[in-house]
Each structure stands twice: as structure tokens, then as C-alpha cells.
Amino acid sequence: MSETNAFDNAIAQIENASGCCSNSDKKLIEILKFPQKIIEVSIPLRMDNGSIRVFTGFRVQHNNARGPYKGGVRFHPGVTLDEVKALSLWMSMKCAVVNIPYGGAKGGIIVDPKKLTGHELEHLTRGYVDKVFDFIGPIKDVPAPDVNTNAQTMAWIMDEYSLLSREHSPAVVTGKPVANEGSLGRDTATAMGGKHVLLEYLKAKGVNPKTMTVAVQGFGNAGYNIAKLLHDEGMSIVAIADSKGTVYNESGIDPMRALKYKEKHGSIKNLPDSVEIKSEEIFGLDCDVLIPAALENAIDHKIAKTVKAKIILELANGPITPEADIILKEKNITVIPDILANSGGVTVSYFEWVQNLSRDYWTLETVENKLREIMVNAFTDIYNFANRKKATMRSAAFALAMNRIIEATKNRGILS
Ligand code: NAD
């Protein structure tokens, strides 16, 4: 098995967790290894200089036994069909972990958005919606932001879908700007959910959060916000990284200062009062908590051997390969798995969708209280299940999710 094929890794995670599922469910697990539908589209785009380029996009609908398909759209030059398949499978698991009534899907376009103008990006996004229009919809499949897509991208998706359907359709997509019926609290939701889960874990272990040192790889929506929230909790952020640079300061980095620097210089590279280190060195730092918040496969078996942190909070999707998981387990390092750790994002997406459909809008306090309750419950279920079954938290989270999806599948009679 290749360590870098995210879909192979997702299948291995299902197989590793199947031992925790009941015997009668085991034969149904096979269904979860196959996405229900794969859509591939070509999107022609007239560039600002008059030339024509054709981009490839995907939408993979993994499973809808528990509700409409749900999952983000990624713009990245490294997008592959296997990556989108893996991300769609993880979405099905994630929605089941937090027990919200959604299935799983994911989308992606092979593009380097940094090389497109704003006008080109808008037309590429609208072109994607035109191509997948028949397959998405407020109670069919609901996209959201992911790497290199944001609230603006979601506003274009909402607008294009509404134009084509001749109906105002805010519930077709989540992660919209608040001015366009987005939810308060969506921008920080992924990190906020991760924070709740980490704090619950530390509480269960009787550890004072204020004594923790933290390294964060990735300084975008997920990475910046978790660094800020944990810094606000009194933890010391000793290292941060983006795609251009990795910086370390033993006495702690102020994430808000780093963000201001990044906004001015395009990267955290050469951040004042910090030492530049090699990108892979962040994983081997002498710190308590390591947070991968960039892309898949960041921690492979070689990197895993260098990890010194005792806790890894997976804010990115699929940042640890199955081979690395084995090494981390042998080293007694706790992995708080992605399908739990970053599920705050889809949870507040669900809140946004509920608000759009009900036309009733909630305060930030309501959103944050509801998010906290869901994250604490999901953590408690998984932590207890893992202790009972003597399994890792990843296998416990997968098994719990698989049990829920299989139960819904059996009840619907798709396969009896
Ligand atoms: P983003 O585009 O806002 O940020 C990505 C960050 O990762 C950027 O700072 C980029 O420079 C950095 N990066 C990319 N390659 C890197 C590398 N090799 N080394 C170091 N840094 C690198 O994306 P995001 O929304 O923060 O998503 C990050 C991860 O979190 C992804 O795996 C995504 O699927 C996952 N996630 C995001 C959300 C969400 O709500 N945004 C929800 C769930 C999961």
C-alpha cells in the first residue's frame, strides 16, 4: 500500500476499526468502502488575457444513509480523485461521529488559486456550480469551504445555484458570509471544536492546560484559529508553519501578531523574534501538543519516529498515515482523530443550514453553546468507547460512526 494514497489510507482506517464493530455489522462495512457516486467535470474558463484554459473538477458523494450529502470544496493544484474520495468518506464518518443528520461528500478543482485573478476565480467557481448543478441542492448535497475556498467562494456558489434554480437558495451551501445568511461562529468553528475536544481530553487526564506547549503546522483558517484559541487558554504556541516557512520560539509566539505579519508579508516566514526551522522539524519539536492543520499525509512513518509530543490533535483531514499511526501507538502517543477533532466545522455548518431552512437566526452565544455540547458529548462517547474496547481513539471514532451509518442503512433496507 502506498503511504500517500489518502483513499487507501481511509480504507485501512475502516478495516482497522472493524474489529470494534458487532459481527452482524461486519458484512455491511463493505458498502462504506465505495462512494455512492463520482462526478468528474471539465470547466472551460476564459482567462483575463483572453486565453482559454480547461480545469478538472470533482464531486464525490460517499454515503447518504443518514441525510443529505455534506462536504467542502477544495481548490488546490494537488487535488486528485483519490484524495476527494478519501475526504468524502471521512465526511460520512465525521457527520456520524457528531451525530448530525448528514451523509458525506467532497469536491475539488485541480487549480492553483493563487495564480488566478479574483474575476477568474469567481467564474471558475460559477462554472463548477453549473456543471454539478443537478447533483447538489439544499436537501441533496450541501457544499462548504475547504482548503483555499472561503466565505466569498460560498457566496458565489449560493448566487449561481440561486440563479440557475430561479429560487433564493441559501441552504445549498454553508460557510457563507454572515451578510448572506451565514452563521455567526462558522469561521472559528473548526478550531473551536478542536479546542473543546483537547480541553476535555486534558481534563480526563488531570492535566492543567496552562502548562501545555503547542506546535501548529498550517496557518490558515483551522491553524491560525486553533493557535489563537489555545493561546487565549494560556497555552504556549512554540512553533507555527505555513507552506512557505516554519518558525519556532521556545518562549511562545503570539498568533495575532503572526497573523498581522502574514497579512503584510504573505507568509509567516522570517517572523521577527523567532528562529526559522526546516518544515519537517516542526513534528519533532520538544512540545506537549502537536497540531497538523495543513494537508493529508504530513506525518508518515519516518516523521512519526521523530515525534516527541505526547498528544496529536488532527485538525487537518488525514494528516497521519496508517503506518505512522502504528508507530505513534507503539510510542504511547495519543492521537485525537480528525473525524472528531475537526468536526466542529461541519457541526456549525449544520447549524447554518438549520437556520437557513427555518429562517430563524441564532446569536453567537447560542451557536457556541450548542457546539460545545455536541463536541463534549462526541468526545465522551469516543473516549469511553476507546477505553472499553481498549482501542485507539481513531478506531473508536470510526467504529462508532460505522455503527451509526450501518444502522441507518439497515433501517432503510438498502441492503437487508
Ligand atoms: P486554509 O487554506 O485556510 O489553510 C491551509 C494552511 O496550510 C495555509 O496556511 C497553508 O500555507 C498551509 N500549508 C499548506 N501546505 C503546507 C505545508 N506543506 N507545510 C506547512 N503548511 C502548509 O485551509 P483550512 O481550511 O485551514 O484547512 C486546513 C486543513 O483543515 C485541511 O486538511 C482541511 O481539510 C481541514 N479542515 C478544515 C475545515 C474548515 O472549516 N476550514 C474543517 C475541517 C477540516
Automatic annotation (TrEMBL):
- Keyword Cytoplasm tagged: no
| Listed name of the protein | Glutamate dehydrogenase
Q: Give the GO terms filed under biological process for this record.
A: L-glutamate catabolic process
Q: Which SMART domains match?
A: ELFV_dehydrog (SM00839)
Output the CDD domains linked to this UniProt entry: NAD_bind_1_Glu_DH
Pfam families noted in UniProt: ELFV_dehydrog, ELFV_dehydrog_N
What PROSITE patterns does the record tag this protein with?
GLFV_DEHYDROGENASE
